[in-house]
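dude i think i finally got it to work??
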Amino acid sequence: MNCVFVQFRCIPGKTYEVAAAIYDREVVSELFSTSGEYDLIAKVYIPEGKDVGHYLAENLFDVPGISRTLTTMTFKAF
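look at this
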């Protein structure tokens, strides 16, 4: 499995609704609220053989209340 981190910027006032919707989909390993430009960050394991972009688009990016995302690919854990 490949690990990616996805940050979410939410429409003002919708962060808790977005977090609940993301968590309910059972796609993320961990989900945190954050400070700064983005409101949430999720750790997501992409199943082997799945295209990262398609997987995220099909499972996360259609959650109402998300205004922007930033995906960070990972390579090696130390």
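The mean pLDDT is 97.
im so relieved honestly
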